[in-house]
Amino acid sequence: MPVFWLTDEISFPPPELANEDGILAVGGDLSTDRLLLAYSMGLFPWFNPDDPILWWSPDPRFVLYPDNLKVSKSMRPYFNQNKFKVTFDTCFKEVMLACQQQYRKGQVGGTWITDEMVDSYTKLNEMGFAHSVEVWKDDELVGGLYGISLGKIFFGESMFAKVSNASKFGFITLVRELQKLDFWMIDCQQRTQHLESLGGEFIDRFEFLDLMKKNKKEKTLQENWSGLFIFH
């Protein structure tokens, strides 16, 4: 399949046309309108700084169904003893910047979270579409994650941890809360051992995109999530 070059028009080719690597299109911008359209179609941007924007539709897709969440025995004491405090949407930009600065094994040439991405996703947070999970220990932000929420699907983007198991604690908390709201799926985009240990699995692109089409009929919880959940 060819890779499509985008114009200034806010549109994308059908995601089914992505090439064998999962790349659908190149170019465009990171405007909030384009990002919302992309996520509604099951696409996401992922590219190196100073390179053109790449838009992805991987096959297979790595996802987690809330009912399949796995909490290991080693994590249970963290919840039983309330070792961390969790909040939502109290410092979205700080979480993104922490994800931007998080060193990842094998990372070369800096982070893929550009300053432009931080600006655009922060705007989406202000609009009630992007959300952050903050994990605190003794009033210090020690972990967290962020992503996009549309309909009954949460699209996870990135996470960070300054202390052991902080991001995992935040992710488990998020999944449990989304389960209460009858969310269908958390899109993890790409497989990691971390997410697989929590219950993540591969599904084929057809199955994923079929769910995306159904999701367009669902109402989005478009608001600040800071007062939505009850925390311990």
Describe this structure in words.
The chain has 232 residues and is α+β, with helices and mostly antiparallel strands. It folds into two domains: 4-59, 2-Layer Sandwich (Alpha-Beta Plaits); 62-227, Leucyl/phenylalanyl-tRNA-protein transferase, C-terminal domain (Aminopeptidase, 3-Layer(aba) Sandwich), CATH 3.40.630.70. The protein contains seven helices and eleven strands. It has helices at residues 32-40, 76-80, 92-101, 115-126, 166-180, 193-197, 205-215, and strands at 4-5, 23-26, 44-45, 54-56, 61-64, 85-88, 130-137, 140-150, 153-161, 185-189, 201-203. The protein has a seven-stranded mixed sheet with strand order 6-7-8-9-10-5-11, sandwiched between helices. Strand 3 (44-45) and strand 4 (54-56) form a beta hairpin. Residues 106-110 have low confidence and may be disordered.
Report the uncertain regions. Answer: 106-110
| Beta-strand residue percentage | 15-25%
Radius of gyration: 17 Å
| H and E order | EEHEEEHEHHEEEHEHEH
Share of helix, binned: 25-40%
Under the CATH scheme, the architecture of the largest domain is 3-Layer(aba) Sandwich
Question: In the CATH hierarchy, what is the superfamily of the largest domain?
Answer: Leucyl/phenylalanyl-tRNA-protein transferase, C-terminal domain
Largest sheet, if any?
7 strands, mixed
The count of domains is: 2
Q: What name does the CATH topology of the largest domain carry? A: Aminopeptidase
Query: How many beta-strand elements?
Result: 11
Class per helix and strand makeup: alpha+beta
Distance, first to last CA: 50 Å
Count the helices. How many? 7
Mean pLDDT: 93
Give the C-level CATH assignment of the largest domain.
Alpha Beta
